[in-house]
Amino acid sequence: MPCSSRSLIALLLMGVALGACDRQSAPKEQENAATSGEVTSGEVAPSVDAGGKKYVIDRSKAGSGMPDFVFTDAKGTDVTLEDFTGKPILINLWATWCGPCVAEMPQLDRIAGDYAEDELQVLTISQDSMGADKVLPFFDANDFQHIKPWLDPENQFGFHYGGGVLPASVLYTADGKEVARISGALDWESDEAKALLEETING
Predict the structure, then answer these.
(1) What's 3's DSSP letter?
(2) How many separate domains does the chain show?
(3) For 19, 136, 137, 202, which has the most beta carbons within 10 A of its beta carbon?
(4) What is the pTM of this model?
């Protein structure tokens, strides 16, 4: 008998968790983390990139709008995604305690530099519950030239996008419409990733 949609989705997400960080990976002080979200099995594409990293591309929410959560910059200034509308956006949810997240950061920094800001904005939004106390020293210790520290210590984005794993990324067109969500670590310099970015920019 074939697997149910619910069972299939569970198996896919379990596979992704092997190449990413789940809620159990967080340190004890990290009480909030991304939780599971609804996906449509027919629109979920499990993949393994050339480096063996597992990830899932989910288009079940394509066309939906952006959430209006308040998050902050390094100085504590409140912003929302609406402040970035008019240009396509790549949101990346990450944490300092998540190894695959940290490994993605240099690629995301290069992407932010390769695509001019009028083409693509890369927002690396930390899900560290200790906020700036953890994130700013991490940025100080790394030579990132283009990405900036954005803080969401309440994990609003993680709860909203769901999936239960980090890193998680979401792409939005310039008019604020979702293109796709990625759960797990993606090779952002792969042909598949570049196609997603071009789709977002041209959307």
Answers:
(1) P
(2) 1
(3) 19
(4) 0.80
Q: What is the CATH number of the domain that holds 64?
A: 3.40.30.10
99 contacts: CB under 8 Å, gap ≥ 6: 21
- Chain segment 79-105, per-residue pLDDT in tens: 999 999 999 999 999 999 999 999 999
Q: Which residues contact 182 (CB under 8 A, 6 or more apart)?
A: 55, 56, 57, 58, 168, 169, 170, 196
Domain of 93 in residue numbering reads as 5-202
Return contacts of 174-177, CB within 8 angstroms, 24+ apart: 174/85, 174/86, 174/87, 174/88, 174/203, 175/85, 175/203, 176/65, 176/66, 176/81, 176/82, 176/85, 177/62, 177/63, 177/64, 177/65, 177/203
pLDDT digits (tens, 9 = 90+) for 4-44: 444 434 434 444 444 568 655 565 545 433 332 333 333 44
Helix (H) or strand (E) holding 103: helix 99-114
Q: How far is CA 145 from CA 28, 107, 108, 129, 142, in A?
A: 31, 11, 10, 25, 9
